[in-house]
Amino acid sequence: MAPVSTDPAAADGPPNAAYVFAVAFRLDPRDAAVDPDRFETTMEIPASAPETDGWLFFRDRLWRGEIGDEPSFRRLAGDRLGVEVVAASFRELRTDEAYLAALKTAIGADLDRFNAESVDEVLHKYLGSSIHVRPE
Predict the structure, then answer these.
(1) Could you identify which of 9, 73, 98, 116 might form a hypothetical disulfide with 121, taking C-beta atoms 3.0 to 4.6 angstroms apart as the criterion?
(2) Global pTM?
(3) Contact 44, 18 (CB under 8 A)
């Protein structure tokens, strides 16, 4: 994974982090029978570079390491996957050190946005202990 700049204008490469979810979906075929009709898989949503559109995904969708509004998230996941998602759970923010450092810098620049006293409080408040740092 390539390093992430803390400068939003420099965020032209692929993200170095992804939100990982377990999702279950159901098939409802026309004129056919399927068995099983429910499947489980892992879905990764690329994390936007800090301070760019979409970077607050964790704040808007997660709470204490869980999906904050599961029905809304299931609709989002279903739209992205093209199937009816019947269950979903957050697994982790999979990241490298550079992305995590950039995320912490962006959070620390505006703690009031998160109603928190520290960056660690923000990370725990939204992601719980579900941050998995991988080597670059």
Answers:
(1) 116
(2) 0.84
(3) yes
